[in-house]
Structures are given as C-alpha cells and as structure tokens.
User: Which sequence fits this backbone?
C-alpha cells in the first residue's frame, strides 16, 4: 500500500518534470524574487525551454558546482561576487562564452578569457532598525559600528557563507595592506567588530527577523536585500558608509560541461540585454552592471543609489588571491574572541 | 538448513552492504591520503598539519563530550518515562503516551527554528519570563553548548522512550512474578531481572543517541556560534574551499565516532537474551490511591504539553501573515493566508510529493536490508562464525558513525564516476541518489531495532517451527515477522521520519526534481517567507506524526 503510494507519487513528480521542453538549470544566490521573475519572462520568450533554479548562498553555489564537477548539474552560474567566480575560473568550473552584451560591461567587471561577466552591481551597506536607531545614532560609516552605542548590538550574518561579508572583510584587510603595508590594522578592526557583535546568524532571513524583532540594532548587509526590506515595509533602513563601500560585481558564467549549453547561452544572452537589465532594475532592485543604459531608463531608486553610494578603491586581485585564507584565519582566530 | 547454505546469503549481503556503506567511506579516506591518483600521491602532511592545531583537537573533544552528555540526558528523561507509561495506568495515559514520541517527528531544522521562536531572546517564553520578572534584559541566551544539549535531549530522549517501552511491552511479566515469588524485592527485581532484560534496548538506544549527536549538525550549526564541534568545523572548512582540511577532519570525526561505537559495544551483552510473552500480557495495574493517580496524571500530561510547545509554536507561526509579528508578545493577527498560498500552487506541493515517495522507498529498502542483516548476523553467530556476524552488525551500524553531510559527500564522490568494474556508477543528478542516501542513513535504525527484536526472540520457536516441517520462508512469515513486528514497526517509523525530514544529506545531493521539503523550507526562509516555511514545517510534522501513529498502531496490534 505504502509502496504503491510512494511509486505513484514518484511517477507524478516525474510526469511533471518531463514535458518535452529543454530544461535549463540555474544555480543562484539571487533569491526567489528575481529568479521567479526571470523564469516567467524567459520562458515566455523561449517556450521550448523550462527554467529550473536552485537558490542558495553565493559561496554555497561555488561549493556545490565544485562538488558536482565530475558530473555537472547546473548550466548557468547566476550570481555571486566576482571574487568567488575568479576562484571557480581558476579551478576550471567555468567555460568561456562571450555574450553579445559583453562590450557594454566595463573592462574591470569582466572575467579572464570570457569565463564570466559582471551582470549587476551591489554593495555592503549599514543596515539598522529604524524604530530604535534614529537621528544622530544612525551609523554613517563603518567605524560607527565600533562605537559604544552599538556595543553588543551588532548582528552579523555568518560571514563564511556570505559573499557580501567576505568581500567587505577582504576590503578591510586589503586596504590595510595597501595603506600600511601589513594586514595588522585590518585584523585589529575585525577583532573590534567581533567584540561588538552579539551573534553570528547562519540564515539571512533569520538575521533580518532578529533585526526586526530588535534583538540587535545594526548589521552589515547587502544593498539589494535592504531595498526589498524597505519596500516590504519592515522597520528597517540603511545608509551608505561615507568612507566608501566595495562595489561588488555580481557576475554570471557558463558552467563547464553543462548539460544544456545551448539553452544556457540563450539565457546569458537574454538576461544581460538592455531590456531585461531594466526589467530587473524596475521589478527586483538590481543595479545593472552595464554602463550604456540611459539614466532616464532606470527607476528612481537606482539614480538615488548611484548618487549616494561611494565606491571604495579596492584591490580585487589581492582579495581573490588571499580571501580564502583570510576567512579561514578569521574563522579560527577572530570569531567569538573579542578585541583582546 | 545446512551450514553451507546459510553462508552464501550472508556473504552476499555483507558484500552489498560493504559496497553501499564501506566503499564510499574508503574512497573518502583514500582522497584524504592523496591516494586517488595512485600511490605516488600518498601524503601524511595534511594529517600532521591537523594534529598541530589546537582548535581541531578542541572541536573533537567538544563533539565527544556533547555526544556523551546528550546520551546521558536523553536516558535520564526517556527511561523513567518509558517505565511510568508502560508499567502503570492512569487517566490520559494512552494519549499522552502517544504524544510523548512526537519530538522525533519534528525534523531537526524545523525543531531548531521552533526553539528559536520559543526560547530565543525575542521568543515567546523568554518574553513571558522577562515580563513576569520585570527584567531589563532577556533572561537567557539560546546559544552555546547549553542550547545544543537542550535540543539534543528534547529530540533524542524519544529513542530511549520508544526502545525501552517496546522492550518492556515484550517482557514476560511472569519473570518478575517468579522473582517476587522467590523473595526478591522490587529493587532487586528491577536491578537483577528487568534491567538486564532491557540491556539490548538500552544499548541500542544509547548507540543511536550517541551516534546521532556526534553527527548532529542543525543544532550546533544554528546555536553553536563560536562553539565549534567537528561537524560544523568540516562544513566551515569545505565552505572556505579548504577541501584538504575538510577531508582530514572528516576522517578524524569518523575515527572518533568509531572509537565511541567500539566502547559502547563493550556494554552490549555478549550473550543473547531471550524471552517471549506467553499468552497475553496483562494490562498495567492502575496506580493505587486517588491522589497519587491524579498527581501522576497531571504531571504526565503537563510534561507532555511542555514537550508539544515547539509544535504549537510552529502552528502559530504558520498562521501569522507575512511581516506582521515584530515586538509583540503574541502575534497581532492570525489568518489562513499562508495555507491558501501553499495549497493553491502545484509548484509548492511538489517538494511534499518528492519527500513522500523518496522516504517511502528508502524506508522499505532499509527495512528489508536491515532485517536481513540483523538476522544474518545473529544466525552466523549462532553457527559459530562470530566474525561474519560482527561484520554484518558493524556495517549496518556504520552510517550513524559518519556525519550525514560527509556520507552524502562520500556518496556523491563515489557515484559521480562511471567505472562499473570498480562498482561505481553515475547516480548523482538522477532520481535515485537521494533515496539511496536516505536508505543508507536509515539502516542503523531499522537494523538495530530488528536486532533488538530478534535478540529477544527465543530461537527454540524457530527450531520448533522447523521441526514441525515449516520451510524457512514459512517460519519467517508465520513465526518470526509477527513476533518482532513491534520492533520493526518502531524502526520503520523512525527511518521514515528521518528520511522525510532529512536536511544534511539532501542539501548535498538534491536535484531540481528531487527537492525535498527541508530544502524548500530553507529557500522559503531565504525569501523571508517564515509563514510559508512554517506551513511546510507543519506539513512535515503532520506527515511524520501520521506515519508514526499508523505504524505505531500496527506495532502494538
């Protein structure tokens, strides 16, 4: 009886899965809001393709594609900081493909050998609970997080899985190297941040939930998600740090040995086109990476962000090279140990 | 049956189990030693680097003591409960007794989230206590080893409760009566008759608890913070891209767990204890004295309600419309909107169907294999081949000694290569890899419960059937299976529930077509759809509970 039910359910799942369309599998950290939109629109434009996406953290995407390298399941690696893509490119996880929109992407946002291209831009921002943090207390720069006011009030997403925080920690250490010749100043700053931190939270949603429920007052989080939170009417807001924030090239690439390379290329071509970039900006708060879009085509929030955001000069090559080791050192010698 | 004919099926079975369980682990060990490319790559350097680092030893030590403490606490809660509910009668016993097993039907991830909303800093209970005592700060923080032990005890005492209850129900009361007639007091009867008879059940439950907690991931992952145990250390290393360290850590954890397994096996009774209930077991006597009965009843029901708080929390969260509950003690509004969203979308129902069929297939497979291995093991021992018996028993216990994530990675590595001559096929990305992983991970539950059931079975019964002319199939069908059905049913329901709520294996091996419920909960959480995530949690809880009570009923029939 149970066996029959099980088999019937299995067949049903199978029946739903195979309807003759070419499947296209996306691994992406972008979250269901954008992914659902892209699935719907792309399938409308390409009725013979069935878009299937799996949503996970950006470092998880890399980890999973690497785990599956012998038998790749993904077709397109859709999203994540280019530092993570660079590492994937070094390990042969990506296949070169130059989409027609490649030339509209600034030189600095392109991967080596056409292995990946920047698609959106995002950045770490200072996020806070707008019900408890008001007026003078609103943090304006990274150093404000270290003030007495926020002692034990900083919530942090677990930095290991988060591309955003990996990038920020990388910037802190890289700028220390650039300005003082050693990492020491950067480590000191990260230790002081750790001393301020109340809790590291594994899941971004739980972190936002805790921030909303006033378990903490401030955090460092990602621009796009904060725009969504504000849009949803949560009592949360954010500021751009005045000393500058590392602007992340959120990239896209073709997975090496993909099962459906044709459909994958069609998707990459489509998703980077001017119309779809504008669509993502209007409906899902994605800041386009291409710089040839006329300003009046972009929604109001985008021009506001472009006006307020201060991009920090960042040594991306150094972050890509040492980032993994830095995060391991952070995990083993800084996390939970405070400033001493 | 002759000695020779009894040998081959067991050897074949040992081969099959080695291929499914031992082989992937061996491949992981070879990879850790750098042997995957041949002997030339052999290097012990990663191991010496591991040994030189204090934090690795600390994580190992923490894994060990957390596992030992969890086992102890689970036994302290579970065993007395089993005695109270099996040995005495009081109003509400039936219902409360069934509800007591429910924590096991709460999948780790869902349970941890419910705990957060209940005992977390802004959780319901914490705010109540804070308000009552007029505290400035939340009364406690749900973090560190205390929180991990709380969750472990909550979800794992059920192993002791179920195993001991099932063993008690099969214990011939005539034994205790005989002891009493011979002048033994209640204490002496308990210590010298009842407890020794319960030893297979106790060691079985202790093994399951120890192995589950040493491989436990969800609780240390969410509550651990900087309190690292080995499972979270492995995931951190892997996520950091340091595969070398992750492999060595995996091997170290497996070694530690195997050591624990070996030590616990020393407690296992060497000889097989047998005993059968002749005739019908009498109903447990009602507690004498109205006051005592009332108190027991109240305490039992009160305790049960306390245990059901996480379930209630989950239901409550599932009724909260998105983004409405912030700092209030209770949610300001409740509605069915999350359920409407859930049932109106075929896409949202798909993970439920996937989880159901995969868990069903895995449970049936694990039941058959676990029973065959348990029976083979006992039979080989009886025939004097202790080695083969021990190998079979060791193989079915092995998956508990290996953290789920690691097992999943080992399976992924082994079955992503097409080398049929080396027993390797490409299963990754197919429909079958996840049910296979669930099956392997469920083997210890079904195997141990079959073993516990078979050990209490008097071999004279089988011999009698054989001497009366029944073939081995007929003996199996008419004598053995009906007698150990309670044990098998308990094992099967645990296996089904584990597979249904599995996160650690799924997160490595799932494909688009086999997304199980737990993965969908995670992606709903990523979308901050906590209400929808809770609806999935409720569905998972209801399905597990149904399976549990249905099979539980079958078990007591």
Assistant:
């Amino acid at each position: 009886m149970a066996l029959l039910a099980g088999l019937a359910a299995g067949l049903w799942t199978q029946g739903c899965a195979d309807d003759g369309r070419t499947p296209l599998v996306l691994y992406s950290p972008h979250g269901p809001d954008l992914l659902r939109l892209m699935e719907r629109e792309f399938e409308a434009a390409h009725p013979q393709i069935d878009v299937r996406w799996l949503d996970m953290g950006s470092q998880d995407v890399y980890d999973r594609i690497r785990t599956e390298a012998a038998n790749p399941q993904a077709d397109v690696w859709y999203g994540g900081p280019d530092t993570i893509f660079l590492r994937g490119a070094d390990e042969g996880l990506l296949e070169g493909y130059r989409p027609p929109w490649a030339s509209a992407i600034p030189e600095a946002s392109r991967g080596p050998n056409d292995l990946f291209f920047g698609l959106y831009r995002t950045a770490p921002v200072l996020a806070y609970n707008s019900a408890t943090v008001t007026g003078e207390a609103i943090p304006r720069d990274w150093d404000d997080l270290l003030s007495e006011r926020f002692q034990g009030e900083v919530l942090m997403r677990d930095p290991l899985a988060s591309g955003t925080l990996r990038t920020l920690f990388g910037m802190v250490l890289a700028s220390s190297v650039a300005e003082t010749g050693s990492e020491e100043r950067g480590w000191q700053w990260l230790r002081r941040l750790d001393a301020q931190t109340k809790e590291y939270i594994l899941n971004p949603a739980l972190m936002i939930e805790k921030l909303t429920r006033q378990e903490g007052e401030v955090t460092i989080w990602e621009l796009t998600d904060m725009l969504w939170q504000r849009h949803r009417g949560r009592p949360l807001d954010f500021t751009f740090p005045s000393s500058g924030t590392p602007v992340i090239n959120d990239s896209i690439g073709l997975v090496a040995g993909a099962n459906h390379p044709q459909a994958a290329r069609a998707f990459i071509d489509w998703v980077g086109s001017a119309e779809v970039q504008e669509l993502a900006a209007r409906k899902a708060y994605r800041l386009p990476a291409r710089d040839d879009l006329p300003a009046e085509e972009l929604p109001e929030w985008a021009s506001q962000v472009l006006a307020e955001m201060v991009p920090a000069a960042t040594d991306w090559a150094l972050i890509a090279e040492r980032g993994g080791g830095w995060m391991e050192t952070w995990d083993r010698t800084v996390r939970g140990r405070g400033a001493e | 049956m002759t000695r020779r004919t009894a040998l081959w099926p067991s050897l074949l079975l040992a081969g099959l189990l080695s291929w499914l369980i031992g082989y992937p682990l061996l491949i992981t060990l070879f990879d850790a030693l750098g042997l995957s490319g041949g002997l030339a790559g052999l290097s012990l350097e990663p191991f010496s680097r591991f040994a030189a680092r204090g934090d690795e030893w600390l994580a190992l030590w923490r894994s060990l003591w957390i596992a030992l403490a969890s086992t102890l606490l689970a036994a302290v809660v579970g065993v007395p409960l089993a005695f109270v509910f099996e040995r005495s009668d009081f109003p509400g016993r039936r219902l409360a007794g069934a509800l007591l097993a429910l924590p096991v039907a709460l999948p780790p991830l869902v349970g941890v989230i419910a705990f957060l909303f209940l005992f977390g800093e802004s959780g319901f209970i914490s705010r109540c206590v804070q308000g009552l005592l007029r505290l400035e700060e939340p009364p406690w923080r749900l973090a560190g080893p205390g929180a991990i032990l709380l969750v472990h005890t909550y979800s794992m005492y059920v192993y002791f409760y179920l195993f001991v209850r099932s063993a008690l129900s099969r214990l011939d009361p005539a034994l205790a009566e005989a002891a009493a007639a011979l002048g033994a007091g209640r204490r002496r009867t308990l210590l010298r008759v009842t407890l020794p008879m319960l030893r297979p059940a106790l060691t079985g439950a202790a093994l399951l608890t120890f192995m589950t907690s040493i491989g436990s991931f969800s609780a240390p992952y969410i509550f651990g913070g900087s309190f690292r145990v080995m499972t979270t250390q492995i995931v951190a290393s892997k996520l950091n891209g340091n595969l070398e360290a992750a492999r060595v850590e995996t091997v170290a954890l497996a070694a530690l767990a195997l050591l624990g397994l070996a030590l616990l096996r020393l407690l296992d009774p060497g000889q097989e204890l047998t005993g059968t209930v002749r005739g019908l077991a009498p109903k447990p006597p009602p507690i004498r004295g109205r006051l005592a009965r009332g108190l027991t009843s109240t305490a039992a029901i009160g305790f049960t309600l306390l245990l059901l708080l996480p379930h209630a929390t989950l239901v409550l969260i599932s009724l909260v419309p998105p983004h409405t509950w912030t700092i209030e003690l209770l949610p300001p509004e409740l509605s069915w909107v999350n359920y409407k969203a859930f049932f109106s979308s075929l896409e949202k129902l798909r993970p439920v169907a996937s989880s159901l069929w995969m868990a069903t297939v895995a449970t049936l497979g694990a039941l058959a294999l676990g029973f065959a291995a348990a029976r083979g093991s006992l039979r080989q021992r009886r025939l004097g081949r202790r080695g083969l018996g021990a190998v079979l028993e060791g193989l079915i216990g092995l998956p508990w000694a290996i953290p789920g994530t690691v097992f999943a990675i080992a399976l992924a590595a082994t079955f992503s290569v097409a080398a049929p001559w080396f027993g390797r096929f490409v299963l990754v990305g197919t429909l079958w890899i996840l049910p296979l992983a669930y099956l392997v991970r469920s083997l210890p539950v079904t195997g141990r419960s079959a073993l516990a059931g078979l050990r209490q079975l008097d071999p004279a019964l089988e011999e009698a059937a054989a001497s009366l002319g029944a073939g081995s199939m007929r003996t199996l069908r008419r004598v053995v299976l009906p007698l150990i059905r309670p044990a098998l049913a308990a094992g099967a329901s645990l296996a089904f529930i584990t597979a249904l709520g599995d996160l650690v294996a799924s997160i490595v091996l799932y494909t688009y077509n086999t997304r199980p419920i737990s993965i969908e909960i995670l992606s709903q959480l990523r979308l901050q759809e906590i209400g929808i995530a809770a609806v999935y949690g409720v569905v998972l809880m209801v399905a597990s509970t149904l399976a549990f009570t249905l099979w539980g009923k079958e078990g007591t029939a």
User: Anything to note?
Assistant: Residues 346-382 of chain B form the longest helix (37 residues). Chain B has two domains: 1-26+328-557, 44-268+295-318.
